[in-house]
Amino acid sequence: MLEFLENLGKTTRSSFAKLGRGTFFLAHTLTGIGDVLPRPNLLLKQMYSVGVLSFLIITISGLFVGMVLGLQGFNILSDFGAEESLGVMVAASLVRELGPVVSALLFAGRAGSALTAEIGLMKATEQLSGMEMMAVDPIKRIISPRFLAGFISMPLLASLFSAIGVMGGYLVGVGMLGVDDGAFWSQMQANIDFQEDIINGVIKSVVFGFVVSWIALFEGYDAIPTSEGVSRATTRTVVNSAFSILGLDFILTALMFGDI
Amino acid sequence: MANSASSDNNIVSVRNLSFSRGPRKIFDDVSLDIQRGKITAIMGPSGTGKTTLLKLIGGQLTPDAGQIHVDGQNVHRLKTADLYTLRKRMGMLFQSGALLTDMNVYDNVAFPLREHTRLPESMIRSLVLMKLHAVGLRGARDLMPNELSGGMARRVALARAIALDPLMIMYDEPFTGQDPISMGALVHLIKSLNATLGLTSIIVSHDVEETAAIADYIYVLSEGKIVGQGTPRQLEQSDSEWVQQFMNGNADGPVHFHYPAADYLDDLLASQ
Amino acid sequence: MQHSKTQDTLVGLFVACGIAALFYMALQISNLGSYTGNDSYTIIARFQNSGGLKVKSPVSLAGVRIGQVASISLDKESHESVVEMRIESKYDNLPIDSGASIYTAGLLGEQYISIDPGSSEEFLKDKSKLDITSSAIVLEEMIGKFMLNKAEGK
Questions:
Q1: Distance (Å, whole) CA A204 – CA C46
Q2: What whole-number distance in Å separates Cα of residue A190 and Cα of residue C32?
Q3: How many whole angstroms separate alpha carbon C89 and alpha carbon B198?
Q4: How far A20 CA lies from chain C's nearest CA (Å)?
Q5: N or C: fewer beta carbons within 10 Å in chain B?
Q6: Is residue C92 part of a domain?
Q7: B96 → closest Cβ in A125, A132, A136
Q8: How many inter-chain contacts (A to B, CB under 8 Å) are there?
């Protein structure tokens, strides 16, 4: 029993220490962003590997999620004779919740884990150390561009997810299940508010982008420089990102939509 | 550029250095000098902290006590910007080469030039090709690091390390795991860079034969202290048992063959 | 440092797609196309029972949407529901003797306010009050009435 408490204390202390390191890391990364802007090449390369390469998984997932929403939504709404509201249902679910959250989770799994592995490997092969010895700040040169790329890509990917999802819902609802074309769009347009729903959804994805990029890059930077250490760091990225995304989603949703 | 503590002859001057990692004392009141223009070797068994010493000299780690002066400047008192300026004048060759894996050989060698100078690409090209030629790999400039053998990777890393024409170069275990030919090439390079450019070299190694062949002065470290120092000839004739065991590669001596254990017979009979 | 023209183009395409998706969401999915904005004025109506009317429920005239409900509150003295509506400024010729009724759109009970235009030459301005109102129809009352009529008819 005593040992358990002792371990709990140690874990808590080391968690706080890690959070502290992570915060300093974040501060250093943010100051490095200024150095990235005059060198767009660095940013572009990262946006390619983080954004463009996630494009496929995001759009395909968005399409499927939208289609499933169309199917399930139709099922439920037809019990109330309210099939015409399918458009609202699909759009609201996607724009407010599923778009930002699911795309953030997918992003963490695909791009986040890749970032962690890349940085962890650079640490293990002494590339980061080597850069320091060559008088180049590895955080400004390597980490900041990747952070900025993730931060910019996330809202774009979430918007893509939602937009394609709505199209998927349209395909299933109007195309396959016979919901009225006009009703689908008009109810949606009447009830989805730009500021309340879309902007809030974008804000969510911006927050998620910030947090996921931070976690992914820090876990790689902090990893133990062995192959086992790097693989564990990759796992931690995905897990910690998932927790953070879902937790933040609750807080943001309560703040944004709680009053309506 | 203050002419404070060290004499002009010593590019690096370590005084009363103490450094611990956790409970282990890696350096215990160690003092040594690296002379300008010479090849100095730091030798000792694996794990004595030789790489740590290089990191301390380069300012990546901070000592618990003592001072390190490089070219007259106290490394750990410098502000970050000044430390970075100092590092540009120090070259370091890591054990694995530490090439950046997402660029080819040419870009790797050009990296310090592109980051720290505003030279036009045409000038950079000339410099890169010269450095690559010096290490014999000018023809390999378009290869990616993962296409190079270990020895070639180290030579590219060497070309990169001398790209900015530094004051001195630190070699971290350059001979470890090399086949005789690569080893020979590297030894030749270190010697010729030192001879032609007057490039002060610090070699950290446990390969006695190769190192002793080219070093001008050797420090032997063990358990956080210097147990021997001198020219290779002096060490050969040293009466320290420890140095003799190390230099000759004897299996048993002051560093025992058997890990501390109970009496052999007692151990065998105990299970019965 | 090594990245090709192709990569750059793809990044550009990616960003363009993302922004296009945002625009799509703004125009096609949301009400930005017909957003009321700040060009609107307020009129107030009191109802005995505003039923299932919600904030942002539409306000229409002759079936055309001219605004939305801004707030619904209870007048503690008169026990009436006080409904504030924001009407788009371009519809500035509503007679002051117009009436407001709460109707139900569709079977699922989404309620809205319909304005019956009066015949006065004077028009409603900001903070004007509508005097003629007709409350929401509550389903139970309707059924009750229906049952009563049926019973009497027999």
A1: 39
A2: 9
A3: 85
A4: 32
A5: C
A6: yes
A7: A125
A8: 52
Q: Provide the chain B residues 73-92 that lie in CB contact (below 8 A) with chain A.
A: 84-85, 87-88, 90, 92
Q: What is the DSSP string of C32-45?
A: GGG--TT-EEEEEE
Q: What is the pTM of this model?
A: 0.78
Q: Quick one: which H or E segment has residue C16?
A: helix C5-24
C8 to chain B, minimum CA–CA distance in Å? 17
Per-residue pLDDT of chain B (272 residues), as tens digits, is 333 344 567 888 888 888 888 777 888 888 888 888 889 998 887 766 778 888 888 888 888 888 888 888 888 888 888 888 888 888 888 887 888 888 899 999 999 998 888 889 999 999 999 999 988 888 888 999 888 888 888 889 999 998 888 888 999 888 887 888 888 888 888 888 888 888 889 998 888 888 888 888 988 887 778 888 888 888 878 777 777 777 777 777 777 777 788 888 888 887 65
Asked if the structure places residue C154 within a domain, the reply is no
Q: Is the ipTM of this complex over 0.90?
A: no
C25 plus C72 within the same structural domain: no
Beta bridge partner(s), residue B219: B42, B229
Structural domain boundaries of chain A? 41-256
Q: Is C4 on the interface with B (CB under 8 A)?
A: no
Q: Is residue C49 part of a domain?
A: yes
Residue that has been written with the tokens 């992003």 in this structure: A107
| Closest-CA residue of chain A to B94 | A130
Q: Which domain holds residue C126?
A: 37-143
Q: Inform me whether the C-beta atom of residue B150 falls under 8 Å from chain A C-beta atoms.
A: no
